Amino acid sequence: MVSVEAFRVEVLGALIGGVRLQMLTLVGNGWHPWLFREESKSLMGEIEVLHPRVVNIPLQENTHSRISRAALIDDVLENPASLTITEDVTSSQIGEAISEWSAEFMEPGTFAVRSRSIGIGIDGVSSKDIEKEAGARISSINNIVDLGDPEIEISVVIAGRTEGEAHPDPLVEANPIAVWGIRNPDWERENYSGRSPTDRPFFKPVSLEPRQARLLISLGYRPGREIREVVDPFCGTGGIVIEAALQGLGVLASDLDSRMVNGTRENLDWVGADYRVEKCNASEIGSTWGRRSDCVFAFDPPYGRSSWKSEDGLDLFLSALSSAREVDPEGVISTMLPTGPEVLSQNPEEEFIVMGKKWSELEELIAQRGWRVVLKSPIKVHRSLARMVIVCHPSD
Ligand SMILES: C[S@@+](CC[C@H](N)C(=O)[O-])C[C@H]1O[C@@H](n2cnc3c(N)ncnc32)[C@H](O)[C@@H]1O
Fold first, then answer.
1. pLDDT of 55-113, one tens digit each?
2. What is the pTM of this model?
3. What CATH number has the domain bearing residue 281?
4. What is the best residue among 278, 306, 318 to mutate for testing ligand 1's pocket, by most ligand atoms within 8 Å of CB?
5. In principle, which of 74, 190, 278, 357 could form an S-S bond with 362, CB 3.0–4.6 Å?
6. Which of 127, 154, 183 is at the close of a domain?
């Protein structure tokens, strides 16, 4: 532990048998902090929450390959440290704390300190001043400042209180903190440019955005369980399976509409993927794919005009759940269901309507098909539509 007069800096990592268990700090995207934390949990197991958008995870053998699957991680900090920002903490004290920490953790090499703020700004704390103060203190014959192409990048995040976010978050209390660490040079935030649904050869307005598609897949992980195949029984234009293929996962996609089947094939050829795409009713994926293992069933079922003729969307969803269990009884369901915008302001424990049904009734129907709901979290689509992200594990 590095301690600086007037406040304490937590060097993150538990001491086990005299060896410090290495930790990583993950900084989440502001679009949906709640789902950022849920995604981190699905991928990495237990997390320690420092702030709605900042979590710690233990560094294990497969950590880097797991976090490379994430949709909502913005930054990964190595050898991290953190400091709670109370009223009397100044930029210059944070700079001093970073310089004390650097004495223990920095290798020789050129460096830059880059600081950014998230959440509400904090009086008396400025990213520019922290960069200047820490840079001046750390600079030495072994560590020369190079702002253009540094060998070591110290990344600092000043995380203020969150307020007025687009999505509700059960974690309301968020004390401001500063976190910093060495930026992992191999980490690149997922770049979706050129991957929007309208860039693909086959596009329809039902196409899911790549970030949400990727999120549905990553929410399908569980600690100690790998995913080998992504099954989408309502594949539409292939938004979800394209993201699966780009990660090297197997693709089993189907749709009842042959135009969608052909369009998904066209889109998967465009990304150069191996795949199996079939025309079939979602209630029949059991016989189409047979028994398999290590699957996530990731899909957004039809609603409104995209539902097939007069078939009821709810019955169709429930029959897809039953046939998913036939395919992989150990699998995970990761889906988003239509709901009203009131869920964005409502207490998540209150009764709300999803797919035209009261949530408690729908949860019971899901349970009757052998699935246990482990996550429900709303996403805003537009003023009059929201979707509830639902993740289910097998109930036995
Ligand atoms: C909301 S869209 C899925 C969009 C898709 N995620 C994408 O990125 O393009 C729902 C799809 O379900 C299909 N569908 C409707 N009824 C079906 C059924 N009974 N079985 C299988 N697919 C069905 C529709 O043809 C439509 O393509």
1. 999 998 889 999 999 999 999 999 999 999 988 899 999 999 999 999 999 999 999 99
2. 0.93
3. 3.40.50.150
4. 306
5. 357
6. 183
Residue 296, strand partner residues = 230, 332
Same domain, 176 and 204: no
**Structural domains counted in the chain:** 2
d(CA 381, CA 391): 19
Domain that holds residue 27: 3-183
Closest by CA position to 289, among listed 321, 262, 319, 327: 327
Amino acid type, 69: R
Q: Are 85 and 9 in contact (CB under 8 A)?
A: no
- Rounded CA gap, 223 and 141, in Å? 44
What is the whole-number distance in angstroms between the Cα of residue 241 and the centre of ligand 1? 13
Residue reference for tokens 């268990």: 21
Ligand 1 atom at shortest distance from the alpha carbon of 307: 15
Amino acid (1-letter code) at residue 144: I
Task: Please tell me whether residues 284 and 367 are part of one structural domain.
Answer: yes
Query: Does residue 123 share a domain with residue 148?
Result: yes
**Under 8 Å between Cβ of 30 and 210:** no
Do 177 and 256 have their domain in common?
no
308, 336, 387: residue to mutate for ligand 1 pocket, most atoms within 8 A of CB: 308
**Mean pLDDT score across all residues of the chain:** 90
Is 378 part of a structural domain of the chain? Answer: yes
- The CATH number given to whatever domain includes residue 130 is 3.30.2130.30
| CA 123 to ligand 1 center in whole angstroms | 50
Look at the block and give the residue holding tokens 């600079």: 139
Same domain, 96 and 228: no
Instruction: Give the amino acid at 382.
Output: H
